[in-house]
Amino acid sequence: DGTTEEVTVPVKVGTDAQINEPTAQEVKTPVGGTPDATTGIANLDELPAGTTVAWKEPVDTKTPGHKEGTVVVTYPDGTTEEVTVPVKVGTDAQINEPVVVPITSEIGKLPTPEEFISNLNELPTGTVVTWNGEPNVSKAGNVKVSLLVTYPDGSSEVLEAELIIVGETKEMVQRPQTKPNVAATTDEQVKPMSTTNEPANAENKPDELPQTGDIDGQKASALGMLSMLAGLFGIGVAKRKKRDEE
C-alpha cells in the first residue's frame, strides 16, 4: 500500500569497555576483613546487565589505613577494564593519630578541648573533640585532662593531655604576711661584748695591794733629793756671807 514508518534503532559502536565509564568509590572494611569489590563501583547498576566486578589482587587488610585496590570490570561482550578503587581498612579511630600537646591557662579560665589537638585539621572532616570529664581550674598546678575524640564513622577514642594552670587566687593575694617567730632572748643567752682591753678574767680578780718595798724605795729617793737640794742651798748661802764680810 506504499505506507512507510520510521523506527529508531540503537546502534552499538565499539565494545562495552569503550562505551561505559565505571565510577570508583571508597570501599570500607575492618582490619583483617575481605572488602567487597562490587561496592567499589558506584554506578554498577548503570552498566550493562551481566557485568561482573572482582579484585585483580587481594587487598592487604592486615593493618589499618587508607589503601588502594584494583577492580577488574568484565562486560557481557567479554571486554574488560581496570579501575583503581580507594580502600579504607579499619575505623577512623584506628587509622588516625591525633597529636596531643600541653596547654597553659590561667586560674579560672577553661581552654577548649580542641586546643589540645595540634593536627585537628588533618583528621577527617566532622571530627569532634569534647571533655571526657571537665577539669577543675580553680587553683594553680599541673592537671591531667581526658579528651574524647569522636570521628565521622562513629568510632571514638579517649586521649590524655596535660593542662598547666598558672596564677594566684584571691585568697593567696589577700593573705597577710606572717612574721617569723623569733624566740625572746635572755641576758644569760646573749652577753654584751666587752669594750675594754682588760683580760676576760679581770673582773673576777680581787684588787691587788701595792708592794711595801716599792713604797719605801720611793720615800728614800725623795729624801735623798731633798738632802741634795738643802746642801746646795747651804753652800750658796755660805759663799754669799763670805763675800759680804770681805
From TrEMBL:
Span list, region Disordered: 175-217
A Pfam family that the UniProt record links to this protein: Gram_pos_anchor
Gram-positive cocci surface proteins LPxTG domain: residues covered: 209-246
Domain of life, per lineage: Bacteria
PROSITE patterns assigned: GRAM_POS_ANCHORING (PS50847)
Keyword Cell inner membrane part of the UniProt annotation: no
Biased amino acid composition, Polar residues: 175-199
Keywords: Cell wall, Peptidoglycan-anchor, Secreted, Signal
InterPro entries hit by this protein: LPXTG_anchor (IPR019931), Rib (IPR059115), Rib_alpha_Esp_rpt (IPR012706)
UniProt protein name: LPXTG cell wall anchor domain-containing protein
